[in-house]
């Protein structure tokens, strides 16, 4: 009798282990399978970023800014801080840096305003916060975190979000704080292209869309194995009608879950929303058992690329493996893991 039960248990456990639907935790994939003590990745946007249209001064400025951002996040993680704090503080720095399309340095809407979107997600609780279309909040990612921690909601937009920011003591600024000459000129070019197009009917003017996206994002794994992701942006130049992109949409521009990975995206937001990009990375890793290299490469270089969705993403998995694929000419990006760090711009 006992031996029959034993045989049955053996057969069942063999069947279960052979059909593990998630694949996560198995040792059959590429990539590291023991957990790093921390891991951090950042992006400062993807797009037509080539050596040819970059000056040495500009390249040095971006490299230095990315490096400082990495240092901020890495120091928090090295000192035992949480992934959530690392993500928030790193993005705050990038929002305050006028080089990036987030916070100060955000792109302009059709009407000449800066409307900011941001989100953050805590992989340990699946709690998330997001804000869309705010115009006076200095650090939208801080507001996103406040929405997550101090409201019963996930996403707040426009005037209500501003009111919530004021009630919760977030720093408010005059909208002129976000102005930079370069972004203003990009809007003027886009508006001129639009005028030309309305006369000629040719909708393919390259100046119509600003192909330098420039959103910022950060993903992190901390010493306790918790993951977090955040994204912040001014959206796309010449956007209209209170358009929201993927950055504030949980599952599109941002996603984190401790059981698999944390993801932050940048690129043509409409595509990232339609393809639920950030959540799709989690889904492929979880249901198909793909590594984040496999999952993100398929989504960015096949699914998005074949359908005209320009951009890229950063992802870190629960072991601290990092993937940073993009299908545009360049992506401002960097990562830091114990004993190794790197900042990159071009392909
Ligand atoms: N994804 C952002 C948006 O569509 C733009 C960007 O990544 O720069 O709003």
Task: Give your account of this protein's structure.
By secondary structure, the protein is an alpha+beta fold. It has one domain (39-346): (Glycosyl)asparaginase (Glutamine Phosphoribosylpyrophosphate, subunit 1, domain 1, 4-Layer Sandwich). Helices cover 37% and strands 22% of the residues. It contains nine helices and twelve strands. The chain has helices at 2-18, 56-78, 83-96, 140-150, 158-167, 181-200, 269-274, 277-287, 292-306, and strands spanning 39-47, 116-122, 127-134, 155-157, 216-221, 227-233, 254-257, 261-267, 311-317, 322-323, 330-337, 340-346. An eight-stranded mixed sheet has the order 4-3-2-6-5-1-11-12. Strand 9 (311-317) and strand 10 form a beta hairpin. Helix 2 runs antiparallel to helix 3 and helix 3 (83-96) packs antiparallel against helix 4 (140-150). The radius of gyration is 21 Å and the shape is globular. The protein starts with a helix and ends with a strand. The relative contact order is 0.18. Mean pLDDT is 90; it is low at 9-30. The structure holds aspartic acid (ASP).
The overall strand count is 12
| Small molecules held by this entry | aspartic acid
Distance between the termini: 65 Å
Low-confidence stretches: 9-30
Integer count of domains: 1
How many individual helices?
9
Net shape: globular
Q: Please write the CATH class name.
A: Alpha Beta
The CATH architecture: 4-Layer Sandwich
What is the H/E order? HEHHEEHEHHEEEEHHHEEEE
Overall pLDDT, averaged? 90
